Structures are given as C-alpha cells and as structure tokens.
Amino acid sequence: MTNAGRTDEIEEKVMYSILQKRPKRADIYWFVHVNILNEPYKKEYKVTEIIKDDLFRIDFNLGFREPTKINLMFKEVLTDMVKNGEVDVTSRYESLNKNNILGDFKFVLSEKFLSNDSDMLWHEKIIMNTYFFIKKFSLSEGNAFGLDSSSVKIEQFPLVLHAPEKIYLTRIK
Question: Under a CB-based contact definition with an 8 Å cutoff, are residues 68 and 139 in contact?
C-alpha cells in the first residue's frame, strides 16, 4: 500500500521495506493506492505498468460512501488483468508453475514508530508521544481498507525527527 499520489513517485518507506529491512523477493510487485473522492458512489481503478511484467501500480478511486474492500477489489483487478492477458500470476517457480499453482499475495503496511535516535525538545516529545498513544486506539490501516488479516504484514518504519548531531567517541587502547 502506498500513499504517494503520483504514479512516478515511490515513498521512502516503501523502498526501505523492499530493499533495506529484510529484502523482499516477489515475482511481481504491486503498489496499491486508494483515493477517496468527494463523490458518494464511484468505483473505478487504473493500472499502470511501471516495469514490464514486474512492477504495477493500481489506483483505486472510490466514492466516500463506498466500502473500501481492497482485498476483494484487488482480486477482481487481477482476474480482469489475467483474462486480458496483461499479467500471469502463476508462480514463477518451476515446480509450482508446471501445476498451475497461483502465487500468493501479501499486503505490506508500514507503520511509523518514533526512533530513539530523534533528538527532540521536551514539548516535541510530549506531542509525538501523545500522537502515537492516540494512534494505538484508532482503526488500523488493514481494517480500514478491508484487508484479510492473514494476507497482511505490518512493518515498523523508524521516524527520525531532528537527527542528533555527530557523536564523537574516543577509542581506548
């Protein structure tokens, strides 16, 4: 899931998730973005192929009264794309491919946490701690988008505010 509004942008947390934390191997990467519109009843989507057969972006444009059942909508988009010959979702592993076994899907959601490396003033700490305390009681992104909990992975992404100055250490021999 991505918050980037433009198709030519990729968020830092998405790149961090794919390449840095625990590098992800996938046959196909899907960036899914949801736009909630000012119209009450609208359900449409747009697919952008970023890298042929490897990287796609799906933009869902949903009316504010439409349920956000992204899990079901994503499956419908895939079915449509497979039917049109735009994508092959059978596993690329030879042993699975010869039996026409479909690849599995995992929605990766990134949650920010306040890094201990942040060098903040006392009032900034209070504000940020209050924000994260309230966030604990709010609706999770997975539930808000109607994602099946068995296909969701939540990753923690460090939020560093006011990176500390360089720490000079002296080595002891």
Answer: no
**Per-residue tokens: 103:** 């690849």
Q: What is the pLDDT of residues 110-123, one digit of tens each?
A: 787 777 777 778 88
| pTM, rounded to two decimals | 0.71
* CA 46 to each of CA 34, 35, 50, 130: distance values in angstroms, whole numbers, following the listed order: 11, 11, 13, 38
The tokens describing 20, both together, are 């840095």
What is the CA angle 87-93-97, rounded to 5? Answer: 65
User: Which among 6, 59, 7 is positioned nearest to 33, based on CA atoms?
Assistant: 59
Q: For residue 25, what are its two tokens?
A: 């191997």
pLDDT of residue 91: 65
Helix (H) or strand (E) holding 155: strand 152-159
Q: Token pair 């519109």 is at which residue?
A: 37
Answer yes or no: are the C-beta atoms of 20 and 127 closer than 8 Å.
no
pLDDT tens sequence across 136-165? 888 888 888 778 777 788 877 777 777 777
Name every residue whose Cβ is closer than 8 Å to that of residue 44 and which is 6 or more positions away in sequence.
60, 61
Closest CA to 108 of 7, 19, 8, 9: 19
Return the C-alpha torsion angle 119, 125, 131, 133, nearest 10: 110
